[in-house]
Amino acid sequence: AGTLVWAKMEGYPWWPCMVVPQPLTGQQMRGRGRDQRLHVHFFDEPPTRGWVNTKYIR
Question: Where is the PWWP domain (predicted)?
Fold first, then answer.
């Protein structure tokens, strides 16, 4: 947790964010193989969170 990364969501440009635990479950990773996703906090206004496939994380 706390790793700074760039993430890409469909319809949006690459955006800076931080890997963080999901507030309700504490998970920061879910899925397996090609469907593995990280929970991130996007540095936008207002701040948002989401699960992003690892192939869209840099």
Answer: 1-58
The pLDDT of residue 15 is: 98
**What's the CA gap between 13 and 4, in Å, rounded?**
16
Is the pTM higher than 0.85?
yes
CATH class of 4-56: mainly beta
| Every domain of the chain and the residues it spans | 4-56
Q: Which residues of the chain are under the pLDDT cut of 70? A: none
Q: Which residue has the tokens 């936008």?
A: 44
